[in-house]
């Protein structure tokens, strides 16, 4: 079971109270970008075995979007933060580096 | 004009917990910047209560204000006063970046009373009820639909859901409270 804490309302609940929103921190390539960049933005996702950043919505609670940094293997959650964040906060990056020294960064 | 009635019209079920339709309740959704003086002043004038902090419910008599999300409050008043209070709030917040809507007829309210109310609810909601203190509102799901619940008194939990799913929720609660389903 995946337990997430919503950073907007502080509730910790299991995943069924939330709705998943796919990979976080995507850079959008829209009209005017070249085809390869658009294809990569549109279709290519990381699907890693290990550290992953995901968008979630507290669908049955406060309704707000947030981002969860978690491990896809162990379901360990390193932290959550509001979706209005363009890159992972330093504190969360530090936590992940301490727990997963082999992690290569979120990019 | 037809008389307003709650969808289950006062239905009641007694199992190891008593589940009752709490009837009509005036409910007003207020969205805006909860930290602003405009919202605090409007709520104070309309219902005489302060803006609650994260996940808190302020209640006094038949009036209450609940924190629903970082930008949303639920103002509860007697059903008959709802449109008047909503008008008052809207007027007070006319110049502010806020919206007020009277949602009384979009909601259904249930009360669960009995010492084992938590045991009935924990079959339906992914909530650790031991952690749910008095004066705290918890928005969650009951089986497949969204609900909000809080402790409204000694051994009593009030649960709010959408009117369109009221019969479903009453069915859920009745089933969860059926004799023989006690957890201890």
TrEMBL record, chain A:
Q: The organism sits in which domain of life?
A: Bacteria
A Gene Ontology molecular-function term? sarcosine oxidase activity
Spell out the Pfam families in the cross-references: SoxD
A Gene Ontology annotation in the biological process aspect, one of them, is:
tetrahydrofolate metabolic process
Instruction: From the UniProt record, list the coiled-coil ranges.
Output: none
Matches recorded under InterPro entries: SoxD (IPR006279), SoxD_sf (IPR038561)
Name used for this protein in its record: Sarcosine oxidase subunit delta
Which species is this record about? Rhabdonatronobacter sediminivivens
TrEMBL record, chain B:
- Gene3D superfamilies named among the record's database cross-references: Heterotetrameric sarcosine oxidase, Probable tRNA modification gtpase trme, domain 1
Entry-linked Pfam families: SoxG
The molecule here is called Sarcosine oxidase subunit gamma
- Which organism is the protein's source? Rhabdonatronobacter sediminivivens
């Amino acid at each position: 079971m995946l337990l997430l804490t919503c950073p907007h309302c502080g509730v910790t609940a299991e995943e069924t109270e939330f709705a998943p929103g796919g990979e976080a921190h995507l850079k959008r390539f829209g009209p005017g970008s070249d085809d390869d960049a658009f294809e990569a933005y549109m279709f290519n996702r990381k699907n890693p075995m290990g550290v992953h950043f995901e968008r979630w919505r507290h669908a049955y609670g406060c309704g707000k979007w947030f981002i969860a940094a978690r491990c896809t293997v162990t379901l360990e959650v390193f932290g959550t933060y509001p979706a209005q964040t363009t890159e992972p906060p330093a504190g969360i990056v530090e936590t992940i580096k301490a727990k997963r020294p082999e992690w290569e960064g979120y990019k | 004009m037809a008389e307003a009635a709650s969808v289950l019209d006062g239905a009641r079920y007694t199992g190891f917990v008593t589940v009752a339709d709490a009837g009509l309740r005036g409910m007003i959704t207020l969205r805006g910047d909860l930290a602003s003086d405009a919202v605090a002043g409007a709520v104070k004038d309309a219902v005489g209560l302060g803006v609650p902090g994260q996940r808190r419910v302020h209640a006094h008599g038949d009036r209450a204000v609940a924190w629903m999300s970082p930008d949303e409050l639920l103002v509860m008043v007697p059903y008959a006063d709802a449109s008047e209070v909503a008008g008052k709030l809207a007027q007070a917040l006319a110049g502010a970046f806020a919206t007020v809507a009277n949602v009384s007829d979009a909601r259904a309210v249930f009360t669960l009373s009995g010492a084992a109310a938590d045991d009935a609810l924990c079959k339906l909601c992914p909530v650790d009820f031991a952690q749910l203190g008095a004066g705290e509102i918890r928005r969650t799901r009951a089986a497949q639909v969204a609900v909000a619940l809080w402790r409204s008194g000694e051994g009593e939990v009030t649960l709010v859901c959408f009117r369109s799913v009221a019969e479903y929720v009453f069915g859920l609660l009745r089933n969860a409270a059926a004799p023989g389903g006690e957890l201890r």
